């Protein structure tokens, strides 16, 4: 592509500070850049430090493949499986990979922002050393931030990630979700929805406000648009109450009133609202008709976090009792919806919570955090259910570090 869009006088000279000058110019230009020119900006920036054949690979909604972004000047191929490929390993592990080639080194870099894995960047350079690695790390970090920012103004990234048709209900649910993962020094979270292209009533939400992590997982009754509409109201009510800085019992009461007023007495949403103090490890929760979360310690489920339960949201339950548990460093809490354990196999037998616990205890783990664990667990469970997902099946994991 032409370099006419690159500002006059911005061509860097000399080796010292090359990366800083390039990335500074890139950041200055990006502020007023329309989304369709982001790819040419990335390609042009890479070219100026000797990078070529730049690809941006985005995970499809089912997290089975990485799909190349087909935009201006990018190198485009076919979707790559996440499992068994270098790009996939970079996506799952969040670590750079370098592959020697005849014409240089192909470098794969995670596109990540606070643990939210946007995708993978791949490009070829003549050679790598510590200075080049540092520049590429900064380049990928800036690219990830710009992709996230521009995604709010365009449909192109969402369209790229679709390998199957998506239902209207799923469209609503995906637009409602926060980033699927977050990782900061004291806490990490990750969630996943099934069936990715048809999910309707399941959702989750979280926010890290200072040292308090707030989490909610919900399951609205029914299927299709009705369930998606109810889930939207439930999450909206949860966010509104959470941002009013009230306690978990009052959040439940507010959500309960919102669902009852909007949908009447015959509709309900099961929900689990949690709050984790990331300084002390104190976990508090209210369970409104939801499956009890699992406490994982040293990679093994040690107990169900049973506690006082109240009626599902919308049924007018009494003020709930808030349960508490002190976590240890490294503890993980796994929340899930009943669609994960109530699926029945071809012979009519229910999948069941014991099989879920067994799968959790044997899922492949790495040092890359909760995001690849949740993905691997979700896909493994789907295989164990014979590929069946007749109801929404959601996982959400919290790790206190």
From TrEMBL:
Keyword vocabulary terms for this entry: Hydrolase
Molecular function as annotated in GO: phosphatase activity
Pfam families to which the protein is assigned, alphabetical: SpoIIE
Residue span(s) of domain PPM-type phosphatase: 184-400
The protein's name: Stage II sporulation protein E (SpoIIE)
Organism: Streptacidiphilus jiangxiensis
């Amino acid at each position: 592509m032409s370099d006419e869009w690159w500002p006059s006088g911005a061509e860097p000279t000399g080796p010292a500070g090359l990366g800083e000058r390039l990335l500074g110019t890139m950041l200055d230009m990006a502020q007023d850049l329309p989304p369709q020119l982001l790819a040419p900006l990335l390609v042009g920036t890479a070219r100026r430090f000797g990078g070529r054949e730049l690809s941006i690979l985005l995970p499809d909604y089912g997290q089975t493949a990485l799909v190349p972004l087909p935009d201006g000047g990018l190198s485009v191929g076919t979707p790559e499986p996440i499992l068994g490929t270098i790009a996939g390993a970079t996506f799952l592990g969040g670590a750079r990979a370098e592959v020697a080639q005849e014409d240089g080194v192909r470098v794969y870099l995670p596109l990540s922002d606070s643990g939210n894995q946007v995708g993978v960047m791949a490009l070829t350079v003549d050679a790598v050393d510590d200075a080049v690695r540092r520049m590429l790390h900064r380049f990928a970090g800036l690219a990830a931030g710009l992709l996230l920012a521009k995604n709010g103004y365009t449909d192109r990234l969402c369209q790229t990630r679709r390998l199957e048709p998506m239902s209207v209900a799923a469209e609503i649910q995906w637009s409602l979700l926060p980033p699927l993962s977050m990782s900061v020094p004291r806490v990490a979270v990750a969630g996943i929805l099934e069936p990715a292209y048809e999910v309707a009533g399941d959702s989750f939400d979280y926010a890290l406000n200072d040292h308090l992590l707030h989490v909610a997982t919900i399951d609205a009754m029914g299927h299709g648009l009705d369930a998606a509409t109810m889930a939207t109201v439930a999450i909206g009510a949860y966010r509104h109450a959470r941002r009013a800085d009230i306690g978990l019992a009052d959040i439940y009461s507010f959500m309960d009133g919102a669902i009852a007023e909007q949908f009447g007495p015959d509709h309900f949403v099961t929900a689990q609202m949690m709050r984790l103090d990331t300084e002390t490890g104190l976990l508090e929760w209210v369970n409104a008709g939801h499956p009890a979360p699992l406490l994982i310690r040293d990679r093994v489920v040690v107990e169900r976090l049973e506690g006082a339960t109240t009626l599902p949201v919308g049924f007018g339950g009494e003020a709930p009792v808030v349960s508490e548990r002190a976590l240890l460093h490294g503890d993980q809490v796994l929340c899930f919806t009943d669609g994960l354990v109530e699926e029945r196999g071809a012979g009519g037998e229910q999948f069941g919570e014991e099989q879920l616990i067994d799968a959790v205890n044997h899922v492949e783990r790495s040092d890359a955090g909760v995001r690849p664990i949740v993905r691997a667990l979700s896909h493994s469970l789907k295989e164990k259910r014979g590929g069946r997902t007749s109801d929404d099946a959601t996982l959400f994991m919290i790790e206190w570090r």
